[in-house]
Write a structure and sequence with these properties.
The protein is an all-alpha fold. It has 2 domains: about 400 residues, no CATH class; about 55 residues, no CATH class. Strand 1 and strand 2 form a beta hairpin. The two termini are about 25 Å apart.
Length: about 500
């Protein structure tokens, strides 16, 4: 089953790829990785007018943690060596390297993310089928799909959070040192990516400790795993501080503090209430718009707790409640910051991790409880699931910030998702220009379908492009067939209660 789930996520990652590091953040993290084994700087000269934090020696450093760059490093180093041996240079070399990095790294993260979510749900008490449907819900019913395509650090963070929750649950169930190492490593890598993920670490450790505390002889059975988890996480946290000290000369600050000091013009204080309203209700950035499955899951789960159909202390409820707590921490932290929306049109990238976990738990909960639900509730849930999947499919059709650029010229009341639907219909019917959607700043790249074969046609010879496109359609067909096979054989099977 685990191999099947990995294959599902891996194929999905390949099919939705645009074949390029399609975000500024991903490019800058690649440059970080490049600086570790070459004489190239961490921040390029051309970027220093709007990017980088200076250390005590005056050297400009990226204002990111090292985690994402570490994961990209093997593919970056291998591709750099190949490019040097082949003598490629300029734009061609850059595009080859980007393609090598994205196809060898991010689909694998997508596959592992699906596996981690499945394992987490199984450890939380869901059946195998419910856990599989939950992994499906994360892959196709949450914002995971968009950030897998864009190559942000978010797909790696959901892998880390899901893995730490899984390992923490296994430790609480008497798992030994192996699960402790997994918990410490997953939480530690997450801290290397973004230090605010300490909120996720607190939840993973907190759930494990709470479950251990509620069991007779719990600490005796789980003590070894907990000690290993704390020790390994402590090592990762020391590495994070050591790396920060190496770059910025102290042990206690963060690059966010230094960013505020050195770039005051980019850090104007935001309005807390406006930020909070945006996170909750904005038609452009509300977290519930982009992950509606998560909201429905919360309602169902906590409704079941109130009705005493499930214990408040059950692992599934604790995972949902803990994820909601992480979401609350992030919302409160980012609301007073002027760039709380994450500098992106397609939702706030600072809150995706807890929302994706909630979406997965919601899907698993719906599957497990489906036979006992009334017909009206089933109809409502089918609508929400269809809406969630539809939103995620819309998210990968164009480059993620198309609507952000359009709204800079002509804001619309129907918000990002509505505008994305209009853009898709206009593209399908050939009315992009007639409907005046090609506003200033909307380049040909932004108007193109955001998939590798369609974007690469201008760079490849006709014959090569034809083969590449045929291969992409073949993989797309395999992905569709795999999903259909999983639905019929692994999910439905002999289950006649899913009508």
């Amino acid at each position: 089953m685990l191999g099947l789930i990995f294959l599902l996520g891996w194929l999905t990652g390949i099919v939705v790829e645009d074949g390029d590091l399609s975000s500024v953040d991903a490019n800058r993290r690649l440059q970080m990785a490049k600086s570790w084994h070459s004489d190239q700087p961490e921040v390029l000269e051309k970027d220093r007018d709007w990017f980088g934090v200076k250390g005590p020696d005056g050297t400009a450093r990226a204002w990111y943690g090292a985690g994402q760059a570490m994961v990209m490093f093997p593919a970056e180093a291998a591709s750099s060596w190949i490019i040097q041996k082949m003598g490629w240079q300029g734009t061609v070399a850059e595009r080859i390297q980007h393609a090598f990095v994205v196809y060898s790294t991010f689909p694998m993260i997508a596959g592992l993310g699906g596996v981690a979510v499945f394992l987490m749900l199984a450890a939380a008490g869901f059946s195998e089928r419910a856990s599989l449907f939950g992994a499906w819900g994360m892959l196709y019913g949450s914002t995971f799909l968009n950030y897998t395509q864009v190559n942000q650090e978010n797909s790696l963070m959901i892998l880390c959070f899901a893995a730490s929750l899984w390992a923490g649950l296994r430790v609480s169930q008497g798992g030994g040192w192996k699960y402790g190492i997994a918990l410490g490593a997953a939480a530690g890598l997450s801290a290397l990516i973004r230090l605010t993920t300490l909120a996720e670490t607190a939840v993973a450790f907190g759930i494990a400790l709470l479950l251990v505390w509620r069991q007779p002889d719990g600490f005796k059975k789980a003590g070894q795993g907990l000690l290993w988890a704390i020790g390994v996480f402590g090592c990762f946290l020391f590495l994070e501080r050591l790396y920060h000290h190496h770059r910025f000369g102290d042990w206690t600050s963060t690059y966010f503090k230094l960013f505020r000091e050195q770039w005051p013009m980019l850090d104007s204080t935001g309005n807390f209430w406006r930020g909070l309203q945006g996170f909750m209700f904005s038609p452009n950035e509300s977290v519930w718009l982009f992950d509606p499955l998560a909201l429905v899951g919360l309602i169902l789960i906590f409704g079941a707790v109130i009705q005493r159909k499930v214990s408040l202390w059950s692992p599934a409820v604790l995972v949902a409640g803990g994820s909601f707590g992480v979401l609350a921490v992030y919302v409160l932290f980012y609301s007073p910051i002027s760039f709380w929306e994450g500098a992106s049109a397609w939702g706030s990238r600072y809150t995706t991790t807890p929302m994706q976990i909630l979406s997965a738990v919601a899907a698993a909960w719906i599957w497990q409880g489906w036979p006992d639900l009334k017909k009206g509730v089933r109809v409502m849930l089918l609508f929400v699931i269809s809406l969630a999947v539809g939103i995620q499919l819309l998210s990968v059709l164009f480059w993620y910030n198309l609507e952000e650029i359009q709204f800079g010229t002509r804001p619309e009341a129907w918000g990002v998702i509505g505008q994305r639907g209009i853009n898709a219909v206009a593209k399908l019917t050939g009315n992009f220009h007639a409907w005046e959607l090609d506003l200033p700043g909307v380049s040909e790249r932004l108007q193109s379908w955001n998939f590798a074969p369609l974007l690469s046609q201008k760079y490849l010879l006709p014959g090569v492009s034809t083969v590449f496109t045929a291969g992409w359609w073949l993989l797309g067909g395999l992905l569709f067939g795999l999903n259909l096979w999983i639905w019929k054989r692994c999910l439905l099977g002999q289950d006649d209660k899913r009508g």
